[in-house]
Amino acid sequence: MEHDAAAASLAELGNPHRLAIFRFLVRAGFDGATVGNIQHALEIPGSTLSHHLSRMAAVGLITQKKQGRSIICVPQYGHLQAVIEFLCNECCIGLEEEVVPALDADQE
Fold first, then answer.
1. Cα–Cα nearest to 35, from 57, 14, 16
2. Do the Cβ atoms of 64 and 21 come closer than 8 Å?
3. What is the average pLDDT across 7-16?
4. How far, in Å, CA of 83 to CA of 77, rounded?
5. Residue 23 contacts by C-beta under 8 Å, 6 or more apart in sequence?
6. Percentage of the residues of the chain whose pLDDT score is greater than 70
7. pLDDT(106) > 60
8. How far apart, in whole angstroms, are the C-alpha atoms of residue 71 and residue 57?
9. Burial class (CB within 10 angstroms; exposed 0-12, middle 13-18, buried 19+) of 50
């Protein structure tokens, strides 16, 4: 993932509403959730939700597909994984080797 793409995705997730939407969709799984379900669960007005979903789709965090009269929003796990890998890619480069296991122990 390129620096600018990672920055754009992180910027979108930096908004509290968009972060809540994305976390809701991740919990929903690979089938995603309808816009109506998201709106009901998170109590976000329709026009505001539409704006947030459009921004998230523009950077690749979610996709939207029409199913009958509903719009299904699906989290893009591959994109999420790419952002995480971008953040961790250079973890601990330049640290002495004996320091790295200590960092791993802190995560438990």
1. 57
2. no
3. 98
4. 10
5. none
6. 88
7. no
8. 13
9. middle
* Domains by residue range for the chain, with CATH: 3-106 (1.10.10.10)
Q: What is the DSSP string of 35-102?
A: HHHHHHHHT--HHHHHHHHHHHHHTTSEEEEEETTEEEEEE-HHHHHHHHHHHHTTTTTTS-TTHHHH
Query: What does the block give as tokens for 94?
Result: 């330049």
Nearest to 53 by CA among 17, 80, 27, 29: 17
CA pair distance 32, 97, nearest whole angstrom: 42
Average pLDDT, the chain: 91
What's the mean pLDDT in 35-52? 97
Residues 75, 1: Cα–Cα separation, whole Å:
17
